[in-house]
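ligand=nicotinamide-adenine-dinucleotide
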Amino acid sequence: NEFQGKVAIVSGGGSGIGAETAKILAAGGASVVLSDISLPAAEEVAAEIVNAGGKAAAFKADVANPEDAEATVEFAKKTYGGLHLAFNNAGIVGPEKYVGDLTPKGWQTVININLNGVFYAMHYQIPAILASGGGAIVNTSSIAGFIGIADLSAYCASKHGVAGLTKSASIEYGKQGIRINSLHPGYVMTPLIAQWTDTELKDALIGLHPIGRLAEPKEIAEVACFLLSDKASFMSGSQVVVDGGFLSV
Ligand code: NAD
């Protein structure tokens, strides 16, 4: 029960990596606020956790909205009495276009959710975590936080930005007892990818991962939870890669 007595916020908790992370945190004894732009998705995962004997509550919030970011922290404090852990994980891929064709609006949408959203979250979470005696934050970046990908300039820029934001904040708050790291997954076998009928495309994507397959969301979630736990007590400002070897090729 390594998360006993801890209060955690998981954004994008209604699906994929966020949902799996929330389940592991709750199984470890944490009280988890699952925030998501889709309330029904977050409620479904929260119900699953509660049915399994854990503590979880769903909260509707758009990470791109600073007021929602503040409200999420207030909800955690009101519901569970404080805040120790945050997994700032909600993100979108966005429009797939070359820079000359990507509209400023399309660019802004991705940056607002993937990068500004992480700033808004930490801006309100950090004072609450300090008031609760310290804790840890993990921000979801990507292998796209290290490399460029054609058609995905906004996504790559946002994920590089998350790494820089994470490192700077980790320097600012290390001595005050908040560890902050970024997590960089390779491709995950999401329902979307699983449904691809173009097997050649699917095989090509798998082929980019020397381990010979894509990740299961749980394999990313386990590392997020390790970083949030006291086992990672000397890890701060790290860019933690979980990519089946993608970046080593
Ligand atoms: P997912 O699509 O399964 O889940 C994302 C969740 O975020 C959804 O429940 C969605 O409703 C929610 N969400 C979307 N926009 C939101 C907003 N504005 N405010 C609040 N919630 C919002 O995604 P996933 O694959 O679990 O990805 C989670 C994170 O991991 C993302 O940041 C993504 O960029 C990153 N990532 C994913 C992969 C991958 O292959 N799936 C690879 C590397 C990094």
